[in-house]
Structures are given as structure tokens and as C-alpha cells.
Amino acid sequence: MNAVDTNILVYARDPRDATKQAIAASLIETVDDAVLIWQVACEYLAATRKLEPLGYSRDQAWEDIRDLRAVWPTLFPSWALLERAEELLGRYSLSFWDATVLAACVEGGIERLYTEDFDAYPAVEGVEIINPFKKKSTG
User: Fold this and answer.
1) CATH number at residue 111
2) Positive or negative CA dihedral for 37, 3, 43, 30?
3) pLDDT per 10-residue tile (average), the chain, 139 residues
């Protein structure tokens, strides 16, 4: 299974960086076996408010989440997830919110997380971290 972090969802709607917008939108359209993490959905609704001056509305944000829910199952939080986040905080240099997203991935059996937030960690607790904006080295 795969998950997409909030920053990827936001970039898909943010016209200020056309390259990142195109990469993010393409990823969202093509990622297989994806799961919507509850926290990511909530963060998206909050984070996209910064796009309102650019013409993106709150109604559009809610519609985006409805559209994602229609095609991706939602992974809801649990107390076990919160305990896992606490463990991750103790082992890695993460913010609380990043630790909860990673904990959701671990608890939900997600194999890959697409995000630009964890470049210091190529994998955490068996979850592969993929930055879709980072150029792959050839060689």
C-alpha cells in the first residue's frame, strides 16, 4: 500500500510552482493501492487555506477530500497509532505531526510514503520514504 503526505496534496493545487504541481498531480492520479491517512486529510483542509488568496476555495478543498475518499480507503487513527508515534519520536528527529503520519503508515501496513518531509530517512520502520520531487541519481 501507498500513502501520500499533505505536502504532495497541497502542491497539486498550488500554482506557484508549476513543476511541483505537475509532479504532485500526476502522482495522485497514478499511485496504485493508495490509502488516505486521516491526519493528512485534516492537515490538507487546514493547509489549503493559504491558497485562498490564489483563488482556491475552502469548498474546493472539501471536494478534493471527498474525491480522494471515493477512491482511496481512509486509515483512521487509534490509540495504538498514538503510542507508535511516541516511540518514533524517541528514536528519530521528527515533529510530532510527522511522527503520527509515519505511525499511521507503520500501523496501517503502508509500504511507501510519498512526501518531501523526510529526506534524512530513506526508510522508517519498514516504510520506504519517497520524495517525488527529488531527482533520481543515475549511475
Assistant:
1) 3.40.50.1010
2) negative
3) 97 96 97 96 96 95 96 95 94 91 96 89 91 74
